[in-house]
Specification:
By secondary structure, the chain is an alpha+beta fold. It has a single domain, classed as Single Sheet (N-terminal domain of TfIIb), CATH 2.20.25. The chain has 1 helix and 4 strands. A 4-stranded antiparallel β-sheet has the order 1-2-3-4, with helices on one face. A hairpin with a 2-residue loop joins strand 2 and strand 3. The longest helix has about 50 residues. The mean pLDDT is about 90.
Length: about 120
Amino acid sequence: MGSSLRDGFTLVEIIVALLVFTTGALGLVAGSAVVAREIGTNGLRSDAARLARSRQEIVHSTCRSAQSGSEVLGPLTSFWTVSPIESTTVTLKGTVSYATPRGGRAEPYALTIECP
């Protein structure tokens, strides 16, 4: 008897397929935006760590004559204090601040440095 053959898709099937595809594409775009923002923030965090390490090396090399201060380097702002403990030891405490898409962030550091 008669078999019904169907060629193509119905309008409802096409609309559902487009809806599923669009939802997936929007999810990928939103995920990409989050990843891009986090990569930028991690880059700033890495730069802040390098700036703190650089300050540590400067204080270590000038140990007894090192002084407290501040510095602005691009988007990073650094404040530090140097306090002598003994004639051969100083304490370095500082903060590196920077702006992120979620607001300002400050990374503190503190260490004791033996003078050569």
